Amino acid sequence: MPSNRNKLTQVQYEILVAIKADSQNGSNVYGRKIADDLGISTYTIYNTLERLEKLGLIYKQCEKEDSTTVKRPQRIYLYLTQEGENALSERTDANIKCARRLGLLQ
């Protein structure tokens, strides 16, 4: 049976890349930040995050800080699962192979 990770849309892929990049930089990753970074509407980002979670590619965790102390809504941080890491790696490899076939990379 084919894996769901082989069917990532471009937006799903970009979101996984953003989660990976921000988490590698030590940043806490949350939906609004990704939406702003990628120039994606919050409607699109949250619907796509729900799909990625249902596919088992990400998981969410509520921040531990009290939202009344920081005077904003509580953030839900995003993390890649191992399946998400694998999907990201596979899609990146496929993109590189495609670029090489087209002569865009050597």
Descriptors for this entry?
Arc Repressor Mutant, subunit A; mainly alpha; two-stranded antiparallel sheet; 106 residues; 5 helices
SSE arrangement:
Elements: H1 10-24, H2 31-38, H3 42-54, E1 58-62, H4 67-70, E2 76-80, H5 82-101
What does it look like?
- It is a single chain.
- By secondary structure, the protein is mainly alpha-helical.
- It has a single domain, classed as Winged helix-like DNA-binding domain superfamily/Winged helix DNA-binding domain (Arc Repressor Mutant, subunit A, Orthogonal Bundle).
- Helix content is 57%, strand content 9%.
- It has a two-stranded antiparallel ribbon with strand order 1-2.
- The radius of gyration is 15 Å and the shape is elongated.
- It starts with 9 loop residues before the first helix and ends in a 5-residue tail after the last helix.
- The mean pLDDT is 88.
Kindly, what is the distance between the CA atoms of the first and last residues, rounded to a whole number of angstroms? 33 Å
CATH superfamily caption: Winged helix-like DNA-binding domain superfamily/Winged helix DNA-binding domain
Strand order of the main beta sheet, please? 1-2
Largest sheet: 2 strands, antiparallel
Class in CATH? Mainly Alpha
Strand content: 5-15%
Q: Regions with pLDDT < 50 over 5+ consecutive residues?
A: none
Total tally of structural domains: 1
Run of helices and strands: HHHEHEH
Our Rg estimate from Cα atoms comes to 15 Å
The CATH topology corresponds to Arc Repressor Mutant, subunit A
So how many helices?
A: 5
Outline? elongated
Mean pLDDT: 88
Which structural category do the helix and sheet elements fall into? mainly alpha
